[in-house]
Amino acid sequence: MHHRFSEPVKKWWEATGNYFPAGIWPEKGSIEYYAQLAHHDRIRRGRRMSESDSSVTFSEGNSTFRISSLGFLHYATVTLGTPGMKFLVALDTGSDLFWVPCDCSKCASIEGKHYSSGFELSVYNPKESSTSKNVSCNNSLCAHPTRCLGTFNHCPYMVSYVSSETSTSGILVEDVLHLKTEDRDQEFVEAYITFGCGQIQTGSFLDVAAPNGLFGLGLDKISVPSILSSEGYTSDSFSMCFGQDGTGRISFGDKGSAEQEETPFNLDPLHQTYNITVSQVRVGTTLVDLDLTALFDSGTSFTYLVDPAYSWFSESFHSQVKDRRRPPDPRIPFEYCYDMTPDANTSLIPTVSLTMKGGGQLAIYDPVIVISTQHELIYCLAFVKSAELNIIGRKSSLQAMLVENFMTGYRVVFDKEKLILGWKKSNCYDVEDTDTILARSHNSTTATPAVAAGLVL
User: Fold this and answer.
1) In percent, how much of the chain has pLDDT > 90?
2) Active-site entry in 92, 96, 254, 366
3) Which of 96, 236, 254, 297 is catalytic?
4) CA 311 distance to own-chain centroid
């Protein structure tokens, strides 16, 4: 038995005509020596996890929270670096890059701001983490090597989002993301990932949404699910559960179940997103066949539709509503809103369901949003009319963007190996653990789920 970097192994390796990468055989006791051993151990351990179909989640737990004051998005607590620092990040299936505020030139103010039961916002400092290192311009994850910054060879990034004038820019770094397995042992895992050191934020990132970072979950190789898969930690799939009480779960490596409904992704080689096709829609008693392509995006607050789909949805809904429609209100982004009496029967609100390509059925449990005013309740069809949809700075042929209110009540599986979207009805508490019990206590409310998530005017 010989050590992998011993002289006998080195001579055998050379005799076979093979050489260690870059022709370098690390000197015993050197930094490179131990770094290579640690990397090898991570890969081997990762492969064992992947082969056992193990799933992992964040070290702070798999719970997610919908925070109405921060754009109605779902957030999770992640821990980065050594020593670990916590960040409250928005979960976004519509983009790829994970970034946090870092070495800020222009970031959201953290002075005196507290969210999610007193959570304090953080700013990442690469110099304070012993495991942090910059990503070089020749790294395969560096998308813009020709724009490298001076003599430091730091890879820059810049991402623009759907919201008007909303963007993030900075440099790429690598550090430890703290995870844990979701088996009974709950073993802690340190996965080295590449993410954005967000030095400059603009638009809604400065106040309304994701002030402490955005966790991109897209299809690109730089997304965290892709990195975890490529390093052998998990299979290339993950799930998100959206509970009707505003809490949920996220799990990396989850491939769903045999009972789930499924539909294939429509992949654009130039810009891959979780794009699916809706073949049939039912609103109340009205049924129509159509060919509607849509993006499943957890990082957008409401569902966007272009005509003629928007007009058909809204007019079919309106024709079956018994309550009085309200006049337009410039403070409300929705066009079809109605008075709601305290003793209103919500079962009379028209139901909405979709049939996906392949025949899978998706019932929409939360098609309306309830808005509280000082004197009354209003409910609105939670669709926004859009002239065109712009996805991460690119014009797209998408006709719709289906977001959290369409995913509520389901465990949604984004399977990047089979290239399918899966979903199964779930209350997100099917398997109880301390994380979700704690989440439930933090988010308890006596209001209906729609009211708890609603706008207050």
Assistant:
1) 45
2) 92
3) 297
4) 29
